[in-house]
Amino acid sequence: MALTEAQLTHYHYMAAMFNELGYTAEHLDVKQALEMAPLVNDRILGGIHLKFGGQANPQRTVQAYAWAMQDHGGRILQNAQVTGFETAGGKVTAVVTSRGTLGCDALVIAAGPQTEGLAAQLGAFAPMAPARAEMIITEPAPLMPIGGVDGNGLYGRQTLRGNLAYGGGPHEWLDVSAAGPSARPTTPLMRNLAKRVAELLPKAEHLRVIRSWAGVIETTPDGRPILDRLKAPDNVVLASMSGVGFGLSPASGHAICDLVLEGRCTFAEIDKLGVDRFAGLSPDWRAERGWTPVAQAV
Ligand SMILES: Cc1cc2nc3c(=O)[nH]c(=O)nc-3n(C[C@H](O)[C@H](O)[C@H](O)COP(=O)(O)OP(=O)(O)OC[C@H]3O[C@@H](n4cnc5c(N)ncnc54)[C@H](O)[C@@H]3O)c2cc1C
């Protein structure tokens, strides 16, 4: 990571925290940081090497999940909008979609930014603010020894071909309809990202941005996931990963499976991720944080 002075203090704290949790995080002086990430701005004060974590191509991973689900007998119904639910005896018994009504024994609502509206139809309060996020991809640069270099408010990686793939705030806050938002890539966020990538990695500033991709993510008021099995109807699980659902997917998938089959997570303490934590939330929480679309910001 390439850091400013303020970030360095913050990351020293983070490194100590990671080490305490049993992960290895090592401080780098300027020379060491530039050896690992030669494209980085040489005015950095140092860096932190987090010796854990990983990276994966999201498009390929999601396709692999879809194939794996089908291999296990699952069926994926695309272009079928869920518009409502049928309930009986304190349970959801069917999901009403634009392609017909489907009976169910258990229901998982993991609809990204639409999770809030669908949960509300069942009387549950799962607050979240939708926002557009975008990643830019540059032409290939010479491969750095370390591919994942964060800093300047960005997160990203260098692909094995050398392309730099970067994203990270500021968000473009949105309101979404039940029919879903349009992904609409190539937003004004792209220019902001490109500028910050050039600042972080100035030896790559001449590279052209060759593509970008965008999507709409949801952020909960405290930024933590929602993973909860409702008390009523009691066969419904709500799942939102608050904007970091890709990295969390192996663990969250396991936890969702446990909540459906066992009624509790068998491998981690997740009570703090329940919707009860939002019971006292101000109705104006989005406006209070400035998490509203620009035209409506106060
Ligand atoms: C540009 C960008 C970069 C990102 N980078 C990272 C990263 O580096 N690391 C990371 O961990 N996460 C990252 N994320 C976030 C990550 O992609 C999401 O957190 C993750 O996709 C959430 O998965 P999900 O299955 O919970 O929801 P989603 O992927 O949002 O899927 C929800 C699905 O529900 C469907 N749906 C919604 N409403 C209805 C309805 N009424 N009826 C039927 N279907 C409906 C939608 O069409 C969609 O297919 C990034 C996101 C973007 C956009």
Structure notes:
It is a single chain. By secondary structure, the chain is α+β, with helices and mostly antiparallel strands. Among the domains are: 1-53, no CATH class; 59-128 and 221-293, 3-Layer(bba) Sandwich (FAD/NAD(P)-binding domain). It has helices at 5-20, 30-36, 58-71, 115-121, 189-200, 245-261, 285-289; strands at 25-28, 47-50, 82-88, 91-97, 100-103, 107-109, 129-140, 155-158, 163-167, 172-173, 209-219, 226-229, 236-240. A hairpin with a 2-residue loop joins strand 3 (82-88) and strand 4 (91-97). The longest helix has 17 residues, at 245-261. It is globular and about 65 Å long. The model has no long low-confidence stretch (mean pLDDT 91). Bound molecules: flavin-adenine dinucleotide. Flavin-adenine dinucleotide (FAD) binds next to strand 7, strand 11 and helix 6.
What order do the helices and strands come in, and which of them pair?
Elements: H1 5-20, E1 25-28, H2 30-36, E2 47-50, H3 58-71, E3 82-88, E4 91-97, E5 100-103, E6 107-109, H4 115-121, E7 129-140, E8 155-158, E9 163-167, E10 172-173, H5 189-200, E11 209-219, E12 226-229, E13 236-240, H6 245-261, H7 285-289
Parallel strand pairs: 6-13
Antiparallel strand pairs: 1-2, 3-4, 4-5, 7-9, 7-10, 7-11, 8-9, 12-13
Bound molecules: flavin-adenine dinucleotide (FAD).
